[in-house]
Request: fold
Amino acid sequence: MFSRFLVFLLFSCRSLAFEDTYVIGAGDTIQISVYGEKELSIDSLNINSSGKFEYPYLGELSALNKTPEQLKAEITQGLLGDYIISPKVRVSVVEFRNVYVNGEVKKPGGYEYQPGLTVDKAIALAGGFTDRASRSKVYIAQNGSDDNKNKVKLSEKVLPGDIIVIEQSFF
Reply:
Protein backbone atom coordinates (compact mmCIF):
# COMPACT_ATOMS: atom_id res chain seq x y z
CA MET A 1 0.00 0.00 0.00
CA PHE A 2 2.76 2.44 0.99
CA SER A 3 4.77 1.63 -2.17
CA ARG A 4 1.73 2.39 -4.38
CA PHE A 5 1.41 5.75 -2.65
CA LEU A 6 5.10 6.52 -3.32
CA VAL A 7 4.74 5.61 -7.01
CA PHE A 8 1.64 7.83 -7.25
CA LEU A 9 3.44 10.67 -5.47
CA LEU A 10 6.52 10.42 -7.73
CA PHE A 11 4.38 10.29 -10.87
CA SER A 12 2.30 13.27 -9.68
CA CYS A 13 5.40 15.35 -8.91
CA ARG A 14 6.94 14.53 -12.28
CA SER A 15 3.79 15.51 -14.20
CA LEU A 16 3.42 18.71 -12.15
CA ALA A 17 6.98 19.70 -13.00
CA PHE A 18 6.24 19.05 -16.68
CA GLU A 19 3.08 21.17 -16.53
CA ASP A 20 5.05 24.01 -14.90
CA THR A 21 7.68 24.09 -17.65
CA TYR A 22 5.70 23.01 -20.75
CA VAL A 23 5.15 25.86 -23.20
CA ILE A 24 1.90 25.83 -25.18
CA GLY A 25 2.38 25.89 -28.95
CA ALA A 26 0.44 25.75 -32.20
CA GLY A 27 -1.19 22.33 -32.56
CA ASP A 28 -1.78 21.77 -28.85
CA THR A 29 -5.30 21.35 -27.52
CA ILE A 30 -6.01 22.85 -24.12
CA GLN A 31 -8.90 22.78 -21.69
CA ILE A 32 -9.91 25.72 -19.52
CA SER A 33 -12.12 25.01 -16.51
CA VAL A 34 -13.58 27.57 -14.15
CA TYR A 35 -15.14 25.89 -11.13
CA GLY A 36 -18.89 26.53 -10.93
CA GLU A 37 -18.90 28.61 -14.14
CA LYS A 38 -19.87 26.41 -17.06
CA GLU A 39 -20.14 29.36 -19.50
CA LEU A 40 -16.49 30.29 -18.77
CA SER A 41 -15.17 26.74 -19.24
CA ILE A 42 -13.87 25.46 -22.59
CA ASP A 43 -13.66 21.67 -23.01
CA SER A 44 -11.40 21.64 -26.05
CA LEU A 45 -9.52 24.56 -27.60
CA ASN A 46 -7.11 23.87 -30.46
CA ILE A 47 -4.29 26.41 -30.49
CA ASN A 48 -3.62 27.70 -34.01
CA SER A 49 -0.46 29.37 -35.33
CA SER A 50 -1.50 32.80 -34.01
CA GLY A 51 -2.17 31.34 -30.57
CA LYS A 52 -5.07 33.77 -30.06
CA PHE A 53 -8.59 32.90 -28.98
CA GLU A 54 -11.68 34.72 -27.74
CA TYR A 55 -12.50 34.25 -24.09
CA PRO A 56 -15.81 35.37 -22.50
CA TYR A 57 -15.62 38.77 -20.75
CA LEU A 58 -11.87 39.09 -21.36
CA GLY A 59 -11.81 39.29 -25.16
CA GLU A 60 -8.83 38.09 -27.16
CA LEU A 61 -6.16 36.16 -25.24
CA SER A 62 -2.98 34.48 -26.44
CA ALA A 63 -1.85 31.05 -25.25
CA LEU A 64 1.22 30.80 -27.47
CA ASN A 65 4.57 30.52 -25.66
CA LYS A 66 2.95 30.49 -22.20
CA THR A 67 2.90 27.68 -19.68
CA PRO A 68 -0.54 26.43 -18.59
CA GLU A 69 0.19 28.05 -15.22
CA GLN A 70 0.87 31.46 -16.83
CA LEU A 71 -2.35 31.28 -18.87
CA LYS A 72 -4.27 30.23 -15.74
CA ALA A 73 -2.88 33.25 -13.84
CA GLU A 74 -3.86 35.61 -16.68
CA ILE A 75 -7.44 34.29 -16.80
CA THR A 76 -7.74 34.27 -13.01
CA GLN A 77 -6.53 37.88 -12.78
CA GLY A 78 -8.91 38.97 -15.57
CA LEU A 79 -11.94 37.37 -13.93
CA LEU A 80 -11.07 38.41 -10.38
CA GLY A 81 -13.29 41.04 -8.82
CA ASP A 82 -15.44 42.35 -11.68
CA TYR A 83 -16.79 38.96 -12.75
CA ILE A 84 -16.05 36.43 -10.00
CA ILE A 85 -15.05 37.03 -6.38
CA SER A 86 -12.65 34.09 -6.13
CA PRO A 87 -12.21 32.30 -9.50
CA LYS A 88 -10.88 28.73 -9.43
CA VAL A 89 -9.30 28.26 -12.85
CA ARG A 90 -7.53 25.22 -14.27
CA VAL A 91 -5.71 25.15 -17.61
CA SER A 92 -4.45 21.80 -18.86
CA VAL A 93 -3.06 20.40 -22.08
CA VAL A 94 -5.34 17.59 -23.26
CA GLU A 95 -3.54 16.87 -26.55
CA PHE A 96 0.04 17.72 -27.42
CA ARG A 97 1.28 18.66 -30.88
CA ASN A 98 2.83 15.84 -32.86
CA VAL A 99 6.39 14.60 -32.99
CA TYR A 100 7.55 13.72 -36.51
CA VAL A 101 9.83 10.82 -37.38
CA ASN A 102 11.37 10.86 -40.88
CA GLY A 103 14.04 9.00 -42.77
CA GLU A 104 15.01 5.38 -42.32
CA VAL A 105 12.06 4.13 -40.24
CA LYS A 106 9.37 1.69 -41.33
CA LYS A 107 6.42 4.11 -40.90
CA PRO A 108 7.57 7.75 -41.18
CA GLY A 109 5.03 10.33 -40.06
CA GLY A 110 3.57 12.30 -37.19
CA TYR A 111 2.93 10.71 -33.82
CA GLU A 112 1.19 12.09 -30.76
CA TYR A 113 3.60 13.33 -28.13
CA GLN A 114 3.44 11.93 -24.61
CA PRO A 115 5.44 13.29 -21.65
CA GLY A 116 8.67 11.33 -21.21
CA LEU A 117 9.01 10.46 -24.90
CA THR A 118 12.58 9.71 -26.01
CA VAL A 119 14.10 9.29 -29.47
CA ASP A 120 14.18 5.48 -29.22
CA LYS A 121 10.51 5.38 -28.14
CA ALA A 122 9.53 7.66 -31.03
CA ILE A 123 11.41 5.39 -33.45
CA ALA A 124 9.52 2.42 -31.99
CA LEU A 125 6.23 4.27 -32.63
CA ALA A 126 7.35 4.65 -36.25
CA GLY A 127 7.81 0.89 -36.60
CA GLY A 128 11.52 0.78 -35.82
CA PHE A 129 14.61 1.21 -37.98
CA THR A 130 14.74 -0.01 -41.58
CA ASP A 131 17.58 -2.35 -42.58
CA ARG A 132 19.50 0.61 -44.04
CA ALA A 133 19.14 2.92 -41.04
CA SER A 134 22.16 4.37 -39.30
CA ARG A 135 21.91 4.08 -35.54
CA SER A 136 24.52 6.80 -35.10
CA LYS A 137 23.19 9.41 -37.56
CA VAL A 138 20.04 10.45 -35.71
CA TYR A 139 19.12 14.13 -35.64
CA ILE A 140 16.44 16.30 -34.04
CA ALA A 141 15.20 19.54 -35.53
CA GLN A 142 13.85 21.31 -32.43
CA ASN A 143 10.27 22.53 -32.86
CA GLY A 144 10.42 21.88 -36.58
CA SER A 145 13.28 24.31 -37.26
CA ASP A 146 15.68 22.98 -39.89
CA ASP A 147 18.24 25.58 -38.82
CA ASN A 148 18.62 23.95 -35.41
CA LYS A 149 19.31 20.30 -36.36
CA ASN A 150 21.35 18.48 -33.70
CA LYS A 151 22.85 15.00 -33.63
CA VAL A 152 21.38 13.11 -30.65
CA LYS A 153 21.60 9.87 -28.73
CA LEU A 154 18.68 7.43 -28.74
CA SER A 155 18.03 8.16 -25.06
CA GLU A 156 17.56 11.90 -25.69
CA LYS A 157 14.23 13.44 -24.62
CA VAL A 158 11.89 14.62 -27.37
CA LEU A 159 9.65 17.69 -27.17
CA PRO A 160 6.34 18.35 -28.95
CA GLY A 161 6.85 19.63 -32.49
CA ASP A 162 10.32 18.07 -32.82
CA ILE A 163 11.31 16.38 -36.07
CA ILE A 164 13.49 13.29 -35.72
CA VAL A 165 15.50 12.37 -38.80
CA ILE A 166 17.25 9.01 -39.16
CA GLU A 167 19.79 8.95 -41.97
CA GLN A 168 20.86 6.02 -44.09
CA SER A 169 23.91 3.97 -43.21
CA PHE A 170 26.47 3.50 -45.99
CA PHE A 171 27.55 0.05 -44.83
Q: What stands out?
A: Residues 120 and 154 are 5 Å apart (CA to CA). The two ends are 53 Å apart (CA to CA). The chain has two domains: 2-95, 98-168. Strands lie at 29-34, 42-46, 52-55, 59-62, 89-95, 98-103, 109-112, 133-141, 149-151, 163-168.
